[in-house]
TrEMBL record:
The encoding gene: serC
GO molecular function: O-phospho-L-serine:2-oxoglutarate aminotransferase activity
Name of protein: Phosphoserine aminotransferase
UniProt source species: Paenibacillus alginolyticus
Subcellular location field: Cytoplasm
Taxon lineage: Bacteria, Bacillati, Bacillota, Bacilli, Bacillales
Enzyme class (EC, first level): transferase
Length: 359
């Protein structure tokens, strides 16, 4: 298999793929595939329930939260969040740190009043802006942040302190990659296709007390409450994606949990950042050093011709997915949980060799 640095859908653990392959036609001796099974069956209900509990446990969230499995990707959450939680007499605050946070902000602006509490757009997203309660609108519904910026390659090191305003985070590109005090959030959400499993399922975890305040004036299918009441079995869920997530969560447990993965992610990303920093400007890191993401590592090279050559040679040498996002160009290595240390070591070696030959 190739070294997979795709940004998302991203690498899955080989063990997970093999286990799913083994169960594909005859799921756990039931005589049918999970793809063919009713979501009202005991088997699927149990799988659904077990996966929700496992996720809460791995995230270190105590009781008092609802786990929802939804469709539509993280982008649908950009719209559902304000539809559920932005009342007409309130303002939704957004911290802009990259293009996904801008998209979230734009969707909210179709729903109600919004306020940009902080932005690093003027710095071309190279840094993460300071945030405090004084920057928020007086009648705040919530503050939305993007903890890890997938395209730009930056992250918050700490969860910002913003007083009593409900805090909501998009964790799509870093969930389960480091220990965070998630009780500080009223809601978190993530598309599965990076650290949780395949595309098709999106998770939203909402504090029960906050959920009680959600709007009852929107269509039922858009209400978080509907999913919570029905344990995410209101309509047909993406069962196979949930099953794959279940396998990924068990893989995380086997790896020693989030703490172990965090340590490994620090080491993996440092291998590549060290090459960038020691290359005497051959590779140019984009993000301010203290806000560099451990999931998405971005850099530029002298010119686009050299960047193209790097991508072509990397592909010929067994690497996948190193081109930067089409909106920004440059290079990006997405080293999510399932990307093994050996892949990062191989990439670091390739980068050193490429610089020696072309520097
Ligand atoms: N938010 C972040 C941080 C992302 O990285 C992505 C996708 O890469 C999205 C939102 C959009 O997710 P989806 O494609 O599931 O709508």
């Amino acid at each position: 298999r190739r070294y997979n640095f795709n940004p998302g859908p991203a690498a899955l653990p080989l063990e997970v793929l093999e286990e799913a392959q083994e169960q594909f036609v005859d799921y756990q001796g039931t005589g049918i595939s999970l793809l063919e099974m009713s979501h009202r069956s005991r088997t699927v209900e149990d799988l659904n329930q077990e996966t929700q509990q496992l996720l809460l446990k791995l995230l270190g969230l105590p009781s008092g939260y609802e786990v929802l499995f939804m469709g539509g990707g993280a982008s649908t959450q950009f719209a559902l969040l304000p539809l559920n939680f932005l009342n007409t007499n309130q303002t939704a605050n957004y911290a802009l740190t990259g293009s996904f946070s801008e998209k979230a902000y734009k969707e909210a602006s179709y729903v109600g009043r919004t306020h940009v509490a902080a932005s690093s757009k003027d710095q071309h997203w190279r840094s993460i802006p300071e945030l405090s309660a004084t920057q928020l609108a007086p009648d705040s519904a919530y503050l939305h942040i993007t903890m890890n910026n997938t395209i730009e390659g930056s992250r918050y090191n700490e969860i910002p302190e913003v007083g009593s305003t409900p805090l909501v985070a998009d964790l799509t590109s870093e969930i389960l990659s480091r220990k965070l005090e998630l009780e500080r959030f009223s809601m978190i959400y993530a598309g599965a296709q990076k650290n949780l499993g395949p595309a098709g399922v999106t998770i939203a975890i909402i504090r029960e007390e906050w959920l009680e305040k959600a709007s009852k004036k929107i269509p039922e299918i858009m209400r978080y409450e509907t999913f919570a009441k029905n344990k995410s079995l209101f309509n047909t869920p993406p069962v196979h994606a949930i099953y794959m997530m279940n396998l990924v969560l068990k893989w995380v447990v086997n790896k020693g949990g989030v703490e172990q993965l965090e340590q490994l992610n620090r080491i993996k990303s440092a291998l590549i950042y060290d090459v960038i920093d020691q290359s005497e400007g051959f590779y140019k890191g984009i993000i301010e050093v203290n806000h560099r993401s451990h999931m998405n590592i971005t850099w530029r090279m002298e010119n686009e011709g050299m960047e193209r050559q790097f991508i072509e040679e990397s592909e010929a040498n067994g690497f996948e997915g190193l081109a930067g996002h089409r909106s920004v160009g440059g290079l990006r290595a997405s080293a999510y949980n399932a990307v093994p240390f050996e892949a990062c070591q191989a990439l670091a070696d390739f980068m050193v060799d490429f610089a020696r030959r072309n520097g």
